[in-house]
User: Which sequence fits this backbone?
């Protein structure tokens, strides 16, 4: 097992190389619907995976940590609606990232224009980040009684 902060992770060992995989996933959804025919939906998902691999050499260990995160942000919005009935004049899609020629100005889905193909405007942005680091760990002296609470972990 690997103890990081207050979390315990089960690992695997093959040919003396220990591997621990830590994964965190978060999902959120926000929606807004109006009876006059307007809908906005935003769905965000983020997955972070950290893989720790190391070999022990007596009391020391050396290895590598690989981290990867992927964020998937999807939004959809009705293409045309009555701004007076709905109370929203311009769209909520963050489409300004699509047009680098705007000089920093926002490109928006307009209520009274057909801005998208079909009746719904959709935008999905996927961002991926990865990093890798090598490490060396040295065992320090600790009182074994400090870890007695781990005795029932995983049972």
Assistant:
């Amino acid at each position: 097992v690997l103890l990081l902060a207050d979390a315990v992770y089960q690992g695997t060992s093959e040919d003396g190389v220990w591997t621990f995989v830590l994964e965190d996933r978060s999902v959120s959804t926000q929606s807004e619907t109006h009876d006059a025919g307007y809908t906005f939906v935003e769905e965000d998902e983020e997955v972070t995976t950290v893989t720790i691999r190391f070999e022990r050499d007596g009391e020391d260990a050396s290895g590598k940590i690989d981290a990867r995160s992927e964020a998937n942000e999807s939004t959809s919005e009705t293409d045309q609606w009555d701004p007076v009935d709905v109370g929203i004049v311009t769209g909520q899609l963050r489409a300004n990232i699509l047009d680098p020629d705007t000089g920093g100005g926002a490109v928006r889905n307009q209520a009274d224009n057909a801005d998208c193909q079909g009746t719904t405007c959709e935008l999905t942005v996927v961002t991926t980040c990865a990093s890798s680091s090598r490490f060396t760990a040295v065992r320090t002296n600790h009182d074994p009684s400090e870890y007695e609470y781990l005795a029932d972990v995983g049972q």
